[in-house]
Write a structure and sequence with these properties.
Strand content: 5-15%
Distance between the termini: 36 Å
Structural class: mainly alpha
CATH topology of the largest domain: hpI Integrase, Chain A
Radius of gyration: 20 Å
Order of helices and strands: HHHHHHHEEEHH
Shape: elongated
Largest sheet: 3 strands, antiparallel
Number of strands: 3
CATH architecture of the largest domain: Orthogonal Bundle
Number of helices: 9
Strand order of the largest sheet: 1-2-3
Number of domains: 2
């Protein structure tokens, strides 16, 4: 019963709040449901690293491919990230558990047309559409790292000078140009979306916020990008 409640809440989170595609929701729920059946005697909040390792060994005995194992572990991580996000847990049982190696690939550079396709696929009628479009354009046109993006401040945006003041690793600073397109997207987000949010005091100068008025996390950026890609492929 405890697992059923947690799974129902997780389903609502990924399907409504994260607005994942039906295929993604089905994949996540299938993986987590199978995991819950294996650990049914242990409530989800009592799961430890050992339980997850036992499950990995279990699926490995059934000759499941490394790629599928990596996907299953990713689903379990997502579930426990949700429980941590909801303040149900403080310690992630997936911590220090590495995904199986599935072979390295040469990094792929997206073309301008592919970036345009990604941006144009974002549904601006949805709650976070304007924000997500500005995030993707900011990453692309400014060449920011995710760590730089999530700490970017409104005070770093110098619209009159058409530049962005970026603080990178080791507090190294650099100046990058602010394009007309990004300026438009940022103004739309700041003046029409962000201004309506209730913002926590410590995040008043942070540019990109989550729905709770806090700074956005690294994993949320990755999820945003992944969800957009899922909509295209």
């Amino acid at each position: 019963m405890v697992w059923e409640i947690s799974l129902t809440n997780y389903y609502k989170y990924i399907s409504i709040e994260r607005n994942l595609s039906p295929n993604s929701v089905e994949s996540y729920m299938r993986d987590i449901t199978q995991f819950s059946k294996f650990t049914h005697k242990t409530p989800p909040l009592k799961i430890k690293r050992k339980h997850i390792l036992d499950y990995i060994n279990h699926i490995n005995e059934h000759s499941i491919s490394a790629r599928s194992q990596a996907r299953i572990l990713s689903s379990i991580r997502s579930f426990y990230n949700f429980l941590i996000f909801e303040n149900k847990l403080k310690i992630d049982p997936c911590e220090h558990i590495h995904s199986p190696k599935i072979g390295s690939k040469i990094p792929i550079t997206l073309t301008v047309q592919e970036i345009d396709q990604i941006i144009s696929s974002i549904d601006l009628s949805k709650e976070n559409g304007e924000r997500n479009r500005a995030i993707i354009e900011c990453l692309y046109s400014c060449g920011l790292r995710v760590s730089e993006l999530i700490t970017l401040k409104i005070s770093n945006l110098l619209f009159e000078e058409k530049i962005v003041h970026v603080i990178g690793k080791g507090d190294k600073q650099r100046i990058v140009p602010l394009s007309k397109t990004l300026t438009k997207y940022l103004n739309n987000y700041i003046n029409f979306i962000r201004v309506k949010q209730k913002i926590n005091q410590h995040a008043t100068d942070i540019l990109f916020l989550n729905r709770r008025g806090n700074s956005i996390s690294r994993i949320m950026i990755f999820n945003i990008i992944k969800d957009i890609i899922f909509q295209i492929i």
